Amino acid sequence: MVAPLRMRTRGLLERRGSSASLKLDLAAINNTVNRSSPLCESTSSETFHTGKHKRISRQQLRHMNICNSITNLFSEFAVLANPADLCRAKINGCALKNRHQIWPIRDTRVRIWDNNVASTASIEDTPIGPADDEARSYINANYITHFVVACLIISNTDIPPSMTHGNIRSSPPEMSKLRALLFLLSMLYFTIINFICRLVSVFIKKRVVPKTEDRLLLMSATKAAKMIRERKITSIELIEAYINRIEQVNGAINAIAEDNFADARQKAHEADAILESIEREGEEYTKLIAAKPLLGVPFTVKDCIEAAGLRCTVGLASRKDVKAVEDATVIRRMKNAGAILLAVTNVPEVCMWWESSNTIYGRVSNPYDTRRTAGGSSGGEGALISACGSVIGLASDIGGSIRMPSFFNGVFGFKPTPGVVPLSGHQPQVEGYMTEMLRIGPICRYAEDLELILKVLAADDSINLLQLDRSVNLHSIRVFYMSGLKTPFVEALSTECHSALKMAVEHFERKYDLCAIRLDLPFVHKALDFYFASMEVPGVAPPIHAMTELDSDVDCAFELAKFVLGLSSHTLAAITMAVFENRTLFSEERKRTIIAQRDRLHRELNELLQANGILLFPSFPTLVPFHNQPLLTPFNFAYTSLWNALALPVVQCPLGLSRHSLPIGVQVIGAPASDRLLIAVARDLEQAFGGWKPLIDR
């Protein structure tokens, strides 16, 4: 028998300001059950009912054929002749690529239960592993958003009344009373914290970094390198301009850990001398451009990437006199490309916190508002580049350490595909799956610099893999988006951050005449579980144990007592992280389940995005927090750490300023090796929204 299918489409049409219901009478297709094909290609009887239908009139829904869409919707679900074959059958969903269809999903995953009832009712409630795959078959349905679908599976036997409708949905199961209470308490807690922080900020003087009008500071590294090669400016002029700017702004933002000014001046003179010694039109000049694309351009580096002769403290007082013996691979490649190291920038202890503060150099402040954090762990880089104290910087990212500071400071930050940029010379060193999570990448003010820096940092085989020199046609792009995380441990998405996401979505819909698809993937909301489970590598000490140079476990109680007495050489954030990481969060069985879910989500996102798909995701749940606020909202970093756990490339793009004159932005996620596409998207968003906003415009 075949039962009616009913669908309530609250999720898809939610942001369009209307609701609709869809009802299909499938009784007329009983005679198609014995077809050889497992998929029913059409329905002979269908009815469509919708409330307030005229309100569904947005650009992305125009021209769509409702009836055809309903037919295609039905063909996404299996209509099988023989229920006995359900358990082992693999059925491929229909690929719907027409962006004007109302159900623009790639595949549909239907769980085939042993009782012959098909459903996708929250697969998160049961462990997922090899045994699960052997027991049941699936069609991918994770990309339907907020649908509640009821259907009956064709069966030769009677189906119990309780099983006459199986739920097909991609949203999490109905919230329990306890979970609802947790969300209510969470909302109250975060409301109180935000009120207190805003109240305290009233009594602290707000400072904004002074504007700059120096044209040398307001050009990209790509343009500066070209002007140096053409001898329109000299390297020493550019270096002196940035040194002067650092001396002007560092008192307010405290971004510099150690300067390299003397050596930078010497290298600048050498670069100018090289250019003076060769003819512009000669073969030697052509080779120089290819070999040294950054000749004479300054850069800065985060204080966890070793630069020969300079201190690499990682924010630890125990390493305040430790100097690097040799350059990290990325530093060496930058220098070989002609770039000149200008300074090392400030970080939190062990680079494992999202506010940059330590007991050696102090705390980094945001150039837009010095009462607020610059983020972490690359806060020094983010603040200095935003304040025009550097044009490009090298940073690292294991939980959002490139993207959070980039968002907070209104600049671009890029976390490339794993394996593209070498990690040698990074402190602390990582092992196991953490090598997939940790990435070294650029922070910069101008999107055009992302490609140039990535080419310099990546090896030749990686450049060939990424095909960075190939052009990108954004007119064939597919756009997906999510409206944040649903977990009581993370703040709800603020109005400003939601508006920024909406701006980006509507830009692509308008410019490229497409329909962006809203997703609500249940596993995404397990971001914190994925991150902490991924950070647990058997036999490897957590990175925070570098507090003791890995000689012993951190005595958290003793360090906390010393901190209260003002005797500790560690920050409260580092001690708190040590307390957290010293605990075993998951049983082995639970961890295996989480890792299996993580890997499944990675595969599904990879299949969904493929070569020309992007996922737009909020950069952070709120605007830039005030100093010390991260201690009270520690898990907000889940918005960025999720993508480290999934080992996917991400670019953080600024979208201008909010009404409070604070940066807003969006993360753009791609499939592995889609770096070229992400850079093209970053440039497109920069062209649309202006990218980094210079101080003169604030």
Give an overview in words.
The termini are far apart. The strands form five sheets. This protein has an eleven-stranded mixed beta sheet with strand order 8-10-9-15-17-16-21-22-20-18-19, with helices on both faces. The chain has a five-stranded antiparallel beta sheet with strand order 3-2-1-6-7, with helices on one face. A hairpin with a 3-residue loop joins strand 11 (357-358) and strand 12. It has 20 helices and 22 strands. By secondary structure, it is an alpha+beta fold. The chain has four domains: 5-168, no CATH class; 176-205; 215-536 and 584-697, Amidase signature (AS) domain (Amidase signature (AS) enzymes), CATH 3.90.1300; 541-583, no CATH class.
From the structure above, extract its key features.
single chain; 698 residues; alpha+beta; Amidase signature (AS) enzymes; 4 domains; 11-stranded mixed β-sheet; 20 helices; globular; disordered N terminus
CATH structural architecture of the largest domain = Alpha-Beta Complex
Helix content: 25-40%
The share of residues in extended strands comes to: 5-15%
CATH class of the largest domain: Alpha Beta
Structural category is: alpha+beta
List the helices and strands and how they pair.
Elements: E1 5-8, E2 21-24, E3 47-49, H1 66-75, E4 111-112, E5 118-119, H2 130-135, E6 148-151, E7 166-168, H3 177-201, H4 221-229, H5 235-253, E8 256-259, H6 261-276, H7 283-291, E9 298-302, H8 329-336, E10 340-345, E11 357-358, E12 362-363, E13 365-366, E14 369-373, H9 379-386, E15 392-397, H10 403-409, E16 412-415, H11 434-437, E17 439-444, H12 448-457, H13 460-466, E18 478-481, H14 495-512, E19 517-518, H15 527-535, H16 556-564, H17 572-581, H18 588-609, E20 613-618, H19 638-645, E21 650-657, E22 663-669, H20 675-689
Parallel strand pairs: 9-10, 9-15, 18-19, 18-20
Antiparallel strand pairs: 1-2, 1-6, 2-3, 4-5, 6-7, 8-10, 11-12, 13-14, 15-17, 16-17, 16-21, 20-22, 21-22
Helix pairs in contact: 5-6, 9-10, 15-18, 15-19, 16-17
Pfam families: Amidase
Family: Belongs to the amidase family.
Domain Amidase: 237-678
